[in-house]
Amino acid sequence: MAQSSASPKDFRLWPFVVIAAVVGIAAICFAYTAGWLSPNRLTPKKLVAGLAPPGGPALGHRRNHSKGICFTGTFEANGEGSALSKAPVFVRGQYPIVGRFNLGTPNPNAEDAMVRTRGLGILITTPDGQEWRSAMINAPIFPVSNPQAFYDLLTASASKDPNAMKNFIGANPGFLTFLPWAKSDQWTESYAEEPYNSLNSFLFVDESGTKHPVRWSLIPAAQPVSISPAELGKRGPDYLEQEITQRVAAGPQHWKLMVTVANPGDPTADPNKAWPADRRTIDVGTMTVQQIEPERDGPCRDINYDPTVLPAGITTSDDPFPAARSAAYSRSYNSRTAEEADYPRTATGAKQ
Ligand code: HEM
């Protein structure tokens, strides 16, 4: 009769073999996540490092859109969004917002007139505790089509190679469609006069489970007054923060939240491609900015405006940016909140 060759001692070793295998697989997963197995892969670490200026990041501050100012206000839903999304934030009613006006620069001390891109972060909370976080910019399209191209743009802009930008544009011709806006000297004189665009595409999910690809924009009630960067520069390096503080103290400022629905075939995975202007656009409510607060001690300081924090009824789409942004924002958030000593709150925590 054939005998099993395994002795009882061998069976006692099995648990250790299994444990070693589990630990080994976990180590490989960690190494992969850290990018050690594929040095060319784009990681959050590389993306965030790519944003840093030559002298290194401004410790304690956001690694991009570092200059900013907090506000509180409301979103008043008119109920029209509920046809597209079951998110409670679209049910007619008023919901609190904690937001932040900002400039697209890694330098918290940048002069306003040096920064073309202005941004807005908002966190809207509904009574059931769900949150909708969004970080938008005033540009009509994003300069590039995917996160790797964004990293390549950062690398080319920082390069000493005189051909770096030319080579980048050769590989990313969509960048040229961004230039007319970037180079225009028709800026506005106020954060209150800017539109803020999601640029990334998301899916609204309605009560029946049907998904609607959308982008959204906040459209200002204030009439834009155009100003050249040279003229803006004469008003002082921090004019935008001073102006919005005075303007909101004199009266609340309003924006309409407009949701644009894609037609079949519209590019949802590429924020460098605008959708045709005739797409269905729905006014879903009004954002009101009621109070400006300084960032240092304000309520937006420790918020990560991660665009993947969404209520049930809104999900990410095939757009590759939100996932890449989420990972990069988390890295930036973890760094800056661990560096509080480099950007201390005022001793009393009093409003400045
Ligand atoms: C892969 C592409 C991108 C990367 C790596 C990136 C990186 C970052 C980082 C590191 C921050 C600071 C986060 C924090 O510490 O809280 C930030 C903030 C911000 N980003 Fe991006 N970003 C990307 C794409 C975008 C896009 C497509 C938009 C707009 C459509 C955008 C708009 C903003 C805004 C408005 C803020 C400031 C939010 C706040 O006030 O906290 N970013 N970004």
TrEMBL record:
Keywords: Heme, Iron, Membrane, Metal-binding, Oxidoreductase, Peroxidase, Transmembrane, Transmembrane helix. The chain crosses the membrane at residues 13-37. Heme binds at residue 329. Residues 323-336 have a biased composition (Low complexity). Its EC number is 1.11.1.-. The active site is at 65. Belongs to the catalase family. This is Catalase-related peroxidase. It comes from Tunturiibacter gelidiferens.
